[in-house]
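Issue 218. Parser rejects a valid record. Input:
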Amino acid sequence: MPGSFGKTKTTSADRQLVRALAHPVRAEALTMLNARTASPNEIANELDLPVGTVSYHVNVLQKLDCVELVRTAQRRGATEHYYRGVAMRYLDDGFWSKLSGAVRNGISVTALRVLIGAARDSVKAGIFDRRKDRHASVVAYNMDERGWTEANELLNETLNGVMKIGAESEARVAANSETTPIRATFGLLGFESPTK
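Output the parser choked on:
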């Protein structure tokens, strides 16, 4: 939101997210937890980090209201905690521009890892092409600044629409125990590519 003298006002939610994403482990954990439910142990194994380190950063994310505890499970005499992200919109353009290049890069690498992992798991399970109405496309253009801006605006509109549909669909699934949910993953990418 524009403030006085054309500066952007930072909301308390933005400040919380900046704090949450200030550490690369928190940025990676939050990106993963926005894509799926996981425990600090699972995140630590995937990132090849000590579970204590990841647990600490997930606890910070919980205190900042970026993740929520979903369930617990007994594992070898210990209680494993499973979390999911609740800060689904932290990658909007206004917020993204406030982050350092290193943090943006860390989030991007993790998001790509999560997206590629989800696609790999789907192919491996033999379900990626099971539905005839699934969508996968790649296009590349030489764009001017206006085209780049218009395309990114469309991607943001699409993201907002998919998130609205997803929330409404999850509510219908929760209300009807006879409904068999379809676990769907959506990834939108728009990035600058090297000139060939």
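Fixed in the parser; the record now loads. The radius of gyration is 19 Å.
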